[in-house]
Amino acid sequence: MSDQGSEEPPKDKKKKSGGPQFPFGGPKLPNFKPFGGWKFSIIYILILVIGMSLFNYVFLKKVNPTIDFSEFKSKIASGEIKRVELTDSYFTGYTTVTPRRETTPRPFLRSSNMAEQDPVYRTVPLNDLENIIKLMDEKGVAYYGVSREGSTILNIIFSWVLPIACIFFIWRFLMKRLGNMGGNVLSVGQNKAVIVAEGDIITRFNDVAGVDEAKEELVEVVDFLKNPKKYTDIGGKIPKGVLLVGPPGTGKTLLARAVAGEAGVAFFRMSGADFVEMFVGVGAARVRDLFKQARDKAPCIIFIDELDAIGKSRINNIAGGNDEREQTLNQLLVEMDGFDATSGLIILAATNRPDVLDPALLRPGRFDRQVLVDRPDLLGREAILRIHAKTVKLAPQVDLASVARSTSGFVGADLANIVNEAALLAVRAGRQIVYQQDFSEAIEKTVAGLQKKTRIIQPNERRIVAFHETGHALIAAFTPGSDPVQKISIVPRGFGALGYTLQMPVEDRYLMTEDELLGKIDVLLGGRAAEDIIFGKISTGAANDLTKATDIARKMITDYGMSKRFKNMALTQRGAGMMGQQPQEPVFHREYSEATQQYIDEEIARMVEQRYNLVRERLMESKSLLDKIAELLLEKESLDEKEFKALLGQPIEI
Ligand code: ADP
Ligand code: ZN
Ligand code: MG
Question: Could you check whether the bond before residue 299 is cis, i.e. omega within 30 degrees of 0?
């Protein structure tokens, strides 16, 4: 079956960029609560104001309200005021002779009756200094001036120290908030990579299951890191970049950790979204910084998770391009070209959107190795369940194989979730161990969620897919000169495909004979023919196959001159490209009449029908084989080359 019908629109669930951005901390923005923060500092300011007034109240002289100058004068005359302090703005009259601060220590808090014992009078001076001094001289009142400037230490505190302290605290507070948001203003360019030192990673390849092909490839990477000399001595080049590609939750991040754990080297982990910032140039600076740090720590692994966040193609950028991301991507390319393969630095990256990556990233010397991390098949799922069930107490009768059987289409993360959910259900039921029934319930819960994401196929649909794929594979095996079948699978594959049959060309081909083209058409039609034979009805699953088959048939007639009437004639003319080069998209000119068009259509229909009948006949002849293989495929979900050949009864070639 091929990609059609259930094609999901590409959705970026993991995309973190976009949305409102704040200059100093893109990705962590959601945690930022501006109002919570400001309320906080308003409280601080309130406390400060109250504190200051209290301070004033306690330490500054408590002074009675001002009195009239005439009253002040008469109080001096009556001898009530014994001492007067003169400043530009006030005259303060005291009823004690000696300044209090020299005799009795000032009490911390003034009691109300103290004011009565020791009244202080204050007045606004009039331009009558000479007379009042004369009066004071007469009455023997002590008087003295107080300089305004160097007045008291309190004045200095209030006018200078406190405001500065305030500003300092507010600044500190703001800095701290910015720091929490993922960056200091002064270090915007520094990266936020999580650096895990050597020996801190406990993940090993044993913790990953169901992705054996990917594991095999990565074992080699570990060997590169452990014994780089082995490869460089012979003149080989160590790969610089390995790209892990696969649907979400299949264990890409886990695999990267396992590589670092196995190799025993430091591990720099960063998400693509961490590079994307508001300021142009910040992401590029982070990339530079990351590589600088990594070079100092080599041998080590740089792991860029969700590479698509920065690695999006620059070409299909309709909205005029994002300068920041482009610069970041360019810097990444520069850094990857910049280090030399012997430095013991390997860059791992993961993505579930390989289709949107910039082609420049995939060129030799960059992420030249791509590792497919696919959905696990039956055995893989069982192995993953075993890994996660290790820490859970299972009842002896729990059959993880049967759990694996009923979780077709689940990825590793789903399975880990199921084990956890089953354990939680057991706890809720008040049990000490997990029973099979807990697993069944956990699966049901999860299936409901996954069905919405169209990752679960109904059992009757699975049957159709199994026979369809077996039809492709059998015809491929029967057709001489056809590429051998490498794998048949009914594990639903990302991007809408329900199953697939993988054929591997034995050698590079530049020419194809007429028979080979017909063979290709046959293999493509095999899927629908098998459905037809077994179920007596046909489904939409073959749509993509039919498009391809029709396309080949049309080309045979119009381009390759392989039809009876227009033998050796090309009916379409390729437009010449610029400067004699092949244009990117050749322009076709139709150089034939309506009647010829009709002939072409009829000829295509005739050719496809003839091939279809042939294919159907061949499959009818070996219906038992079709049944046998499809049933086994239903059970095991995927068959490799060896298993398939064994079923065919062919000698097994290595
Ligand atoms: P990805 O990065 O591909 O989206 P992760 O590596 O983050 O997926 O997987 C999430 C979790 O799911 C892992 O921490 C692990 O517990 C579990 N898991 C996923 N795939 C596997 C696997 N192949 N084997 C074991 N556990 C897996
Ligand atoms: Zn098909
Ligand atoms: Mg991940």
Answer: yes
